[in-house]
Amino acid sequence: MARISLRSPYFFTRTALATAQSVLCEIRINNSLKYSLLKSATAGLDSIFEISELCRDFLTLDYDGTPTVLGETYIDIDLSMYFYASKDGSGSALNPVYSQDNNEGYDAYGYFNEGANPEMPFYLNANDSFLISPKLGSTTEWEIFAPFGQEGFIPFIFNTGLRPIVDYKFYSSGATSVSIGAVSTCVINRIPCSKYGDGERITFVNKYGQFQDLWFSLKKVLTTSTTKETYQGINLTSSGAVTTYATNKPSKVVYNKEATERISLNSGYYPEGYNAVFEQLLESEQVWIRTVDAGGTTQYLPLNVMTSSFVKKTKLNDKLIDYTIEFSEAYDKINNIR
Asked: 25, 117, 206, 337: which could form a disulfide with 212 (CB 3.0–4.6 Å)?
C-alpha cells in the first residue's frame, strides 16, 4: 500500500522474469479495471510503468465547505503486473504475478529534492501529522490563523495501529488548538477583526492533496472586465425614391459579450513560516472562495490564481510580512452554461 502523489510521476516497477518477452500492467480504480497496458519486456531488466497521470483522470475534487476524504480527496488504486513468455501477451501469465493493492491516490505532489515516487506526508512524521506546512524549522509543530468566531477543518494523518488514516479535524469557533493522538497539536491563532471585517476565506488544495483554508484579512479590490465581438450592421430603410437609416440604431452591433471579475486580496500579517503556505496556494490548481449570495446562502465558488510569482518576504528584510494575491473567477460572470 502506498499513498501516491498523483501530480508527480509514480513508477510501478518490477524485474522481468527469466523467460519474459512481454509485460502487462493492469490499473484498477475503485475496484474497476480502467487500463491494461502491454509492452515488450527483456528478461532480467526492469519493466517500468508511470501510472499517476492516468489515475489522476479519475480523481474529482468537489469542495462544499465540509471536507471528507473518501470520494473527495483520494481514489483507491490497485496495480498488477503480469509477465508472459510470448511477445504479444498471449498464453498464461508467468509466476509470480506482482500486485500492489489498496494504494491511495491523492492530488498531491512532491518537489524535485524529495526524489522519485514521493509519498505523502513526505518529510513529516508519517505516524502523526497535520497535513499542512509545519512551523518554520520544525516537522512536528503546526499553526494556522483564523478570525475570532470562525470554525473550520484541518487535514491530518494518524496511525491507528493498523493503517494510517487521512481525515479532517474540526475546530470550533472558539477553539485555540486541536490535537491528534497524544502529542501532535495545531495552534489556532485568532486574527482580530479590522475595518474590513473578518476578511475572505480562500480554500485550496495544498501540497498534500488536502483542502486547506487561508484567510485574507485586509484590503479587497474587485475589478470587472468584459470582452465582446462586433459586426458591421445594415439598417437602411427605403420609401419610394428615398433611402435613409435610423440614427438611434447601431451600425456596429455588439454580440457575444462576456464578463469576468478579478479579486485582489491582501493577506494581512503572517509569520515568515507561512511563506510555504502562500507558495502552495500559487502552485494549486484547485481554489475556492466562500461567499454568501443575496438570499443568504453560503457558496464556495471556484477561482483561478492570477498571481504567478511572489518574492518571499522575511522578518529580517521586510519586518512585517503580508502579500497581495490576485484571483479571477473560474467562470464567466454572465451565465452561459448550456
From this structure: 206
Into how many domains does the chain fold? Answer: 2
pLDDT tens for each residue of 220-248? 999 999 999 999 988 888 888 888 888 88
pLDDT band at 70 (very low <50, low <70, confident <90, very high): low
Domain termination residue (choose one: 114, 149, 183): 114
Can you list the positions of beta strands (E) in 57-159?
74-84, 98-106, 128-130, 142-147, 152-158
| CA gap 89, 21 in Å, rounded | 8
Same domain assignment for residues 315 and 175: yes
Q: Is 123 inside any structural domain?
A: no
Write the CA distances from 61 to 55, 69, 252, integer angstroms: 14, 10, 44
Q: Which H or E run includes 200?
A: strand 200-205
Which residue type sits at 310?
Answer: F
**Domain for residue 247, yes or no?**
no
Judgement on whether residues 137 and 267 belong to the same structural domain of the protein: yes
If asked whether residues 76 and 182 sit together in one domain, one would say no
Name the residue range of residue 19's domain.
3-114
Q: What pLDDT digit, counting tens, does each position of 263-320 carry?
A: 999 999 999 999 999 999 999 999 999 999 888 899 999 999 999 998 998 888 888 8
Q: Which residue, 102, 143, 140, is CA-closest to 121? A: 140
> 6-39 pLDDT, tens per residue?
999 999 999 999 999 999 999 999 999 999 999 9
Q: What is the structure's pLDDT at 134?
A: 92
Q: For residue 46, what is the domain's CATH number?
A: 2.60.40
pTM of full prediction above 0.85: yes
Cis peptide before 164, with omega less than 30 degrees from 0?
no
Query: Other C-beta atoms within 10 Å of 106: how many?
Result: 26
- Indicate whether 166 and 294 sit together in one domain: yes
Looking at the chain, the number of H-run helices and the number of E-run strands are 3, 22
Cα–Cα distance list, 55 to 52, 102, 260 (Å): 5, 14, 32
Final residue of a domain: which of 114, 148, 179?
A: 114
